[in-house]
């Protein structure tokens, strides 16, 4: 965090990211400061249940301004979805993709860590 080439991406659902729900009983709701929303569905072909192709994943990432030189850190609630998303990114040629395996649940459980909430409309 703090590097200009780093992108933090939240792969949870939009209601989780916005801070509307805490389905896993997280202590606080919201997302990591500055994180973009890049839901797990961006990596999965819902009809088949398989990962999208490398070209489809590349297009999804590039649409968010993410290149192969980007230090991409993905997270979810406790690391499972983010682990799959990081693997999909790496399979698509984004070798710098990593995931925060402690996830939002650990982050939100520490009152010293900042959280952002999307304003309710």
Short overview:
The protein is α/β, with parallel strands linked by helices. The chain has helices at residues 14-18, 54-63, 80-91, 103-109, and strands spanning 6-10, 36-37, 44-45, 50-51, 71-75, 98-99.
Can you offer a commentary on this structure?
By secondary structure, the chain is of the alpha/beta class. It has helices spanning 14-18, 54-63, 80-91, 103-109, and strands at 6-10, 36-37, 44-45, 50-51, 71-75, 98-99.
SSE blueprint and pairings:
Elements: E1 6-10, H1 14-18, E2 36-37, E3 44-45, E4 50-51, H2 54-63, E5 71-75, H3 80-91, E6 98-99, H4 103-109
Parallel strand pairs: 1-2, 1-5, 5-6
Antiparallel strand pairs: 3-4
Shape: globular
Give the SSE order as H and E letters. Answer: EHEEEHEHEH
Radius of gyration: 14 Å
> What is the strand content?
5-15%
> So how many helices?
4
Strand order of the largest sheet: 2-1-5-6
Q: How many strands, which pairing sense, and closed or not: the largest β-sheet?
A: 4 strands, parallel
Stretches where pLDDT is under 50 for at least 5 consecutive residues are none
The count of DSSP E runs of length 2 or more, i.e. the number of strands, is 6
N-to-C terminal Cα separation, in Å?
Answer: 29 Å
Helix content: 25-40%
Q: What structural class results from the helix and strand content?
A: alpha/beta
Mean pLDDT: 94
């Amino acid at each position: 965090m703090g590097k200009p080439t780093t992108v933090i991406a939240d792969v949870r659902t939009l209601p989780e990211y916005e801070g509307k729900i805490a389905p896993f009983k997280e202590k606080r709701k919201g997302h990591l400061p500055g994180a973009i929303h890049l839901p797990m569905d961006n990596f999965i072909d819902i009809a088949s249940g398989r990962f999208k192709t490398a070209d489809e994943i590349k297009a999804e990432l590039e649409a968010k301004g993410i290149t192969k030189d980007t230090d991409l850190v993905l997270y979810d609630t406790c690391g499972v979805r983010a682990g799959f998303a990081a693997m999909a990114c790496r399979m698509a040629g984004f070798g710098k993709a990593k995931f925060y395996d402690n996830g939002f649940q650990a982050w939100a459980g520490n009152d010293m860590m900042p959280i952002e909430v999307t304003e309710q409309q």
